[in-house]
């Protein structure tokens, strides 16, 4: 079976976990290049979705707790532009995850 775009999707997913920022100038230590914008978006989206969703081992923490977490990590762990866009999406544009 052929999956269009599977290679690029796997690449993005592979790099989404370890690419949380470690300072003001994010670098991908293995390739020496900047962290892809898509990966920066996935990192923030992953945290927000994981914290705001129910897990078998804990209740959902809620969207506000998730947004506070990524806001607190802006500049250090997450790209500040990505965090600002995520917060705006939820708080100003009224986005909500479907149940």
How would you concisely characterize the structure shown here?
It is built from four helices and no strands. The protein has 99 residues and is an all-alpha fold.
Key structural traits:
99 residues; Hypothetical protein af1432
Provide a descriptive summary of the structure in words:
The protein has 99 residues and is mostly helical. It has one domain: Hypothetical protein af1432, CATH 1.10.3210.10. The protein has helices at 6-16, 37-52, 63-72, 80-91. Helix 1 crosses helix 2. It starts with 5 loop residues before the first helix and ends in an 8-residue tail after the last helix.
Q: Topology as H/E string?
A: HHHH
The H-level CATH homologous superfamily, spelled out, is: Hypothetical protein af1432
Mean pLDDT: 80
Looking at the overall shape, the CATH architecture is Orthogonal Bundle
Unreliable residue stretches = 16-20, 22-28
